[in-house]
Automatic annotation (TrEMBL):
Residue ranges occupied by any ABC transporter domain in the UniProt entry: 5-232
Keywords associated with the record: ATP-binding, Nucleotide-binding, Transport
GO molecular function: ATP binding; ATP hydrolysis activity
SUPFAM superfamilies xref list: P-loop containing nucleoside triphosphate hydrolases (SSF52540)
The protein, known as: ABC transporter related
Length: 297
């Protein structure tokens, strides 16, 4: 039986710093999410909370009706792959020893697939982790994430130190394996253009808050930049979901995420109002500037 991963009122504080601020959302099973945010937005903290590596200051994280806190079985179904392994003493291990250790943790581990990944990424299993390059540290995380076949698999910026060839290889392997072994995948990134075609749903986070949680196809249909004389644009956008506006004298640019009819768009053209579709990168930048999604009127 499928059940979603649920965050209910989750806050994480580090002394006087609030890294995650009252997040409530559901993460659907068997879907690829893009977790997008600037550096310091709270992406890694959110992933660590989902992986049960950190505990919320407030709130609860569940799979269905079951809390992940103190639940070893659920925790073993979650894999957080990062560009470095910070467990004390592990850096002195060989890659082979680290991967064997990972195979004991994750019940769905596929050893044959692990060997295939080692060969595809030219990873030397006999080399000590501490002697690897930054890019190969990232590769070790990718291999663990893919071979774990964990029901919730998360990749935290899985491109650090990788050349374009290995980045492209990762994308191809991820999609191929996901099609064969469906699971929930979250990719944290600010390289939006490279990853956009992988995402099915997008979470945009800033200052520890989720600013947007939407299907990528809906974003592509709804995201628009509306430009023209400020008074006219404000009149025609009444009731629309305005994310961000930039005013230059009597002119204004509005970033909007909403439905538009063909009749509306035709009317805009007749009133000398320009509009264009927005890609995910520009939507992210403008939404981060605006800080919140305005309420529908």
């Amino acid at each position: 039986m499928m059940s979603n991963w649920i965050l209910n009122g989750v806050t994480k504080k580090f002394e006087d710093t609030t890294a995650i601020n009252n997040i409530s959302l559901e993460i659907e099973e068997n879907k690829i999410y893009g977790l997008i945010g600037r550096n310091g937005a709270g992406k890694t903290t959110l992933l660590k909370l989902l992986a049960n590596q950190l505990q919320p200051t407030e709130g609860i994280i569940q799979k269905g009706n079951v809390s992940i806190r103190g639940n070893d079985e659920l925790t073993r179904s979650i894999c957080l792959a990062r560009d470095s392994i910070n467990i004390k003493g592990v850096a002195a291990f060989t890659v082979d020893k680290i991967l064997k250790f990972a195979s004991y943790i994750y019940p769905n581990w596929d050893n044959d697939y692990c060997e295939e990944l080692i060969n595809k990424f030219d990873l030397n299993p006999d080399k000590k982790y501490i002697k690897l390059s930054k890019g190969m540290h990232t590769v070790v995380g990718i291999v663990i994430g893919l071979a774990s076949r964990a029901s919730l698999t998360m990749f935290d910026e899985p491109y650090i130190g990788l050349d374009p060839v290995f980045r492209e290889l990762f994308y191809e392997l991820l999609i191929a394996d996901y099609e064969q072994y469906k699971r929930t995948i979250i990719i944290s990134s600010h390289l939006i253009n490279e990853f956009e075609n992988l995402f099915e749903r997008v979470l945009i986070i800033d200052r520890g808050r989720v600013l947007l949680n939407e299907e990528l196809e809906e974003i592509r249909k709804k995201a628009r930049l509306i430009s023209g004389e400020k008074s006219v644009v404000e009149e025609i956008l009444k009731g629309k979901n305005i994310l961000y506006k930039q005013v230059i004298g009597k002119l204004a640019n509005y970033t909007v995420l909403d439905d538009f009819t063909e009749k509306e768009l035709y009317e805009y053209k007749n009133r000398n109002i320009k509009w264009s579709s927005l890609d995910l990168q520009r939507l992210f930048v403008n939404l981060s500037k605006g800080g919140h999604i305005s309420e529908q009127q």
